[in-house]
Design a protein that fits this description.
heterotrimer; A mainly alpha (303); B alpha/beta (329); C alpha/beta (338); A: 74% helix; C: 338 residues; 4-stranded antiparallel beta sheet; 13 helices; 12 strands; 33% helix
Chain lengths: 303, 329, 338
């Protein structure tokens, strides 16, 4: 209880309370996350259950339009799928893929950065050149490449199952260099400090020093970059799905929905593209705004 | 001698969301033209803050809460940033501790000098450059005409600090605020730099406010000394008296704890405890928890500066009543 | 020496400061190395303090790290109680008997760890005590020993002042129950009154626990009060070494005299201070012969050509041609120096 009270009073939380943008973004994000996590109970239909789809229901407009019904608040798509449910399930996929890929990138990036910064020398040079090479390729291109290679090399039956993991890997791989560079820089700074030398004097092993002493001190910027990367990761996933190389059409993510809806934008069924688009916008915008606030709140110089 | 700089009951506070912290509380001293005033104190006593307030470089959330700073009779603490900029550099120069961060690494030393000169004096490029070279020679940079086009990182630490001195003095200011100018330098270089500062300031009649924690430097350079503790001046007087016959118990303790070079002691004299933090300054005299001569008045009332033998000290031991009683002191 | 705790025998340490190989290949530069420590020998007896004094670039920090085994010498040997230091460090039982106190109180404690964990780390690493209760008690004792309170273990380093942090550092160093401590400028970052407290504390601990110290400093006044033996260093070499009081009462090497003269005169006796000009040259490209010759008022032709060996004068060794040739004038009596 006392810990909570102290946290409430801390500088970061205080800054949060006083920044309307942060509070609103957090509220929107929270609503979206709850909707995504509990989609199985909140969504009126199960959009993945192909058996429940009724082509007769297709192209229903949203409820607030004259021909709409309250059965489908946001209308249905070309296959009769309820848009609201599809968006909720799609949002869940977006969060899962986004968070997982960022987590993957953080783990790889932090490990590489720690090793490069602490060991130095040719290991450092090699790892950083690898990061540099990777940074010169656009993330989407890398993801396409990985996806293409995997699709070709796996039998079709396996493909659908691993698609999500391939996607997570492909997106995560494009983000690790940023983390590696930042962590390497911080590690170089911390390595020269005397508390590290004190640990070396008593003979602690390098991995132990890295993990217990250096890691806690280099994680700060990682949190900020991770938050900002999350928005990018979600957009990357949506882009890949939009391009048709992301998630399979039977598990539509928000990006797939937008692609489907794209074909119908001019023929009158605008809601199929618009609502997923708005959902994506809200997700990424709230994450980015929150990330911006966090970066400023954690920056000691601005306080 | 009319005072060039007067600091009159200056109080500086920091306004944070946790409350107001009083960092300087009624600081009061003056500097006459051509005089060197040493401002001594330990970390957190407020000496650098005083220097910053005088130059007008007080950083938010610090602000002047009360008191005045007068330069040549006119108030400067309430000037606009533009007004202050006119004075800073031309009339009041500054020397900071770390020459590496004072000098811009991207520009040559000559360019920085010339730029400073031309900002405050209407000289052509060629004349400014000539003056810059002559200043480099005055501060003892060998081959000045060649080194003028070197970058700061091409100089050693001591040379860099000489350049900084040239930078501060090239506009011939009437007052220089020097904040720990020798602390980052080796001992043998310190002696050279202090000597240089003394020589040049005597030559031009420049007053100096020398802020430092190093009593040795003060003993050799200052004419008068102000001792600061917990945001106030607790003793002020001529340097010989402060160093050899200090009146305030804190100054006495400070002088005693300096390891003497002339003999070896089994145990150094020490002052127990530590200077109070800004948010924990005790009532009455701020030194009372550590003072070996504390008595009941010290805990109740805060003393102002009062005549104390050869100096002025903020200590109840020297109040006429106490002295009259003959109880202490 | 039989009861020497630490010995250095002709220790040299070089660092490679060449530019990256690509740039060197392009501009055809040779590899550059820096001799931070150059043929240094000394020995510290049990329970004694050897102080090494010098200015920037003299190699004292490098010696501090060599003495505690953070890296090996390029040439020569470091011996701990008669055996090779690196062999000693490979054995945890010997390694725990040496520890170090650092200069910067703000960088020597991990800001994210609580004080009790910082102080307990050597205890845990060497398995001296196990069990939370025992460790907490011991940490409390150590904190009290250095003048803090046991309750301070709950706090973080940023809640303490510079002097208090140095005490925490000392408590940490003591927790491995060492016999030998290297103190690398432990008071240079502290205010004068706090410095007195820390120096007194270090001496008390030495007397009580029979500790042996290697004390590094640039401040001769401080060093006078803590040393038994004193070594003066310049550009990686020891130029004068011997009993502290002998050197203070009769400094022989011109650089030692320069250092003593450069100290401001607090007693204000009006002692004539003639600061010797020049600065410490870069250690990458040191002057030939005796490295001090460009700044030395007594240098002659031999000094710029030939490196001086050690002349023994009583208990003091001096590396100076002028001393060897007995042409060094006696020092003008300066007020206050006994």
């Amino acid at each position: 209880m006392r810990a909570l009270a102290r946290a409430w009073d801390s500088d970061v939380v205080y800054s949060f309370r006083r920044t309307p943008v942060a509070v609103i973004s957090a509220a929107i994000l929270l609503a979206l996350v709850i909707g995504a996590v509990f989609c199985r109970w909140i969504a009126p239909f199960d959009p993945y259950d192909l058996a429940s789809l009724n082509l007769m229901d297709s192209f229903q407009p949203p409820a607030f339009m004259p021909e709409g019904t309250t059965a489908h608040w946001l209308g249905t798509d070309d296959q009769g799928r309820d848009m609201l449910s599809a968006i909720l399930y799609g949002a869940r996929l977006s969060f899962v893929v986004g968070l997982s890929s960022v987590l993957f990138a953080v783990v790889v990036g932090v490990v590489v950065g720690l090793v490069a910064g602490y060991v130095g020398g040719s290991a450092d040079a090699a790892l950083m050149r690898l990061a540099d090479v990777q940074l010169s390729f656009p993330a989407i291109l890398i993801a396409l490449l990985i996806d293409g290679v995997v699709s070709v090399s796996l039998p079709i039956a396996m493909r659908e199952g691993v698609q999500v993991y391939v996607l997570i890997f492909a997106i995560g791989v494009s983000f690790w260099p940023q983390f590696a560079r930042t962590v390497r820089g911080s590690t170089l700074v911390e390595r020269g400090k005397e508390y590290v030398m004190a640990a070396q004097v008593i003979g602690l092993s390098s991995p132990r020093i890295l993990l217990t002493h250096i890691l806690p001190n280099v994680l700060g910027p990682v949190l900020v970059i991770a938050t900002l990367s999350l928005g990018l990761a979600i957009i990357s996933e949506a882009t890949l799905s939009y391009l048709g190389v992301g998630l399979p059409p039977t598990q539509p993510s928000v990006g797939t929905l937008i692609r489907v809806g794209n074909d119908f934008l001019y023929s009158g069924e605008w809601w199929i593209a618009l609502f997923p688009g708005i959902a994506l916008l809200l997700i990424v915008l709230s994450i980015n705004l929150l990330g911006d606030w966090l970066r400023d709140a954690l920056n000691p110089r601005l306080r | 001698m009319a005072a060039l700089l007067e600091v009159d009951q200056l109080s500086v506070e920091f306004v944070t969301r946790r409350g107001r912290l009083l960092a300087l509380d009624g600081v009061d001293f003056s500097i006459a033209a051509g005089e060197v005033l040493g401002v001594v104190g330990e970390s957190g006593a407020g000496k650098s803050l005083t220097g910053a307030a005088i130059i007008g470089l007080l950083e938010k959330p610090g602000r002047i809460r009360a008191g005045q700073i007068r330069f040549d009779g006119k108030r400067i603490d309430d000037l606009s940033p533009d007004g202050m900029r006119g004075i800073r550099g031309k009339q009041i120069g500054a020397i900071f501790q770390d020459p590496l961060t004072t000098l811009n690494p991207l520009y040559t030393v000559g360019r920085q000098l010339a730029e400073t000169i031309q900002t405050h004096l209407p000289l052509s490029d060629a004349d400014a450059r000539a003056r810059a070279i002559s200043w480099l020679e005055r501060v003892g940079i060998p081959a000045a005409a060649r080194r003028i086009d070197s970058y700061p990182h091409e100089f050693s630490g001591g040379m860099r600090q000489r350049v900084v001195i040239a930078l501060a003095l090239c506009t011939e200011p009437r007052l220089v605020v020097a904040d720990e100018p020798t602390t980052a330098l080796d001992v043998s270089i310190q002696a050279q730099i202090i000597g240089l500062l003394k020589e040049l300031t005597r030559e031009h009649g420049t007053a100096v406010m020398l802020v430092t924690h190093d009593m040795g430097v003060i003993a050799e350079t200052a004419d008068r000394v102000a001792v600061m503790y917990a945001g106030r001046v607790i003793e002020i007087g001529p340097v010989a008296d402060i160093v050899q016959r200090p009146s305030h118990p804190y100054t006495q303790g400070l002088m005693d704890s300096i390891p003497a070079l002339d003999r070896r002691l089994a145990r150094l004299r020490q002052i127990d405890g530590a200077m109070p933090r800004l948010n924990a300054i005790p009532p009455g005299c701020p030194y009372n928890p550590r003072c070996p001569k504390v008595f009941d008045r010290c805990v109740r009332d805060r003393p102002g500066l009062m005549p104390a033998r050869a100096t002025r000290a903020a200590c109840w031991l020297y109040a006429p009543e106490t002295v009259g009683e003959g109880a202490h002191g | 020496m039989v009861d020497a705790v630490l010995q250095a025998e002709n220790v040299t340490r070089r660092f490679d400061v060449s530019r990256p190989w690509l740039q060197r290949a392009i501009s055809r530069e040779p590899k550059q190395s820096l001799r931070a420590v150059d043929d240094v020998s000394f020995s510290i007896a049990k329970g004694q303090t050897l102080s090494l004094v010098g200015e920037s670039g003299c190699g004292k920090s490098t010696i501090a790290r060599l003495a505690v085994g953070l890296y090996p010498p390029s040439e020569g040997r470091m011996l701990f109680e008669g055996q090779s230091l690196s062999a000693a460090r490979a054995q945890p039982e010997l390694r725990r008997r040496m520890n170090m106190i650092f200069q910067d109180p703000y960088a020597s404690l991990n800001p994210r760890w609580r004080v009790r964990d910082i102080v307990a780390e050597p205890l845990r690493a060497f398995g001296i005590l196990t069990g939370r209760q025992a460790v907490t008690e011991r940490v409390g004792q150590l904190l009290e020993q250095v003048g803090l309170s046991a309750r301070d273990g709950e706090k973080f380093p940023h809640e303490f002042s510079g002097g208090q942090r140095q005490r925490i550092s000392i408590a940490r160093a003591l927790s491995s129950e060492p016999d030998f401590l290297v103190a690398d400028e432990p008071t240079s970052a502290l205010d004068v009154s706090v410095q007195a407290q820390i120096l007194n504390l270090l001496r008390e601990l030495q007397e009580r626990m029979q500790l042996t110290y290697l004390f590094i400093s640039h401040n001769l006044a401080v060093v006078r009060h803590v040393s038994d033996q004193l070594g003066v260093m310049y550009l990686g070499r020891i130029v004068e070494i011997g009993p502290g009081e002998s050197i203070f009462s009769n400094p022989r090497h011109p650089y030692t005299r320069l250092l003593l003269d450069a100290i401001p005169d607090l007693a204000m006796t009006g002692r004539a201070r003639t600061p010797v000009g020049g600065e410490v040259p870069s250690p990458i490209d040191p002057p030939s012969g005796c490295t001090f010759h460009p700044r030395c008022p007594f240098a002659n032709a031999r000094c710029s050509a030939e490196r001086p060996g050690y002349t023994i004068d009583g208990a003091v060794s001096v590396a100076c041609h002028a001393v060897e040739e007995r042409r060094l004038p006696p020092r003008e009596s300066t007020a206050g120096l006994a």
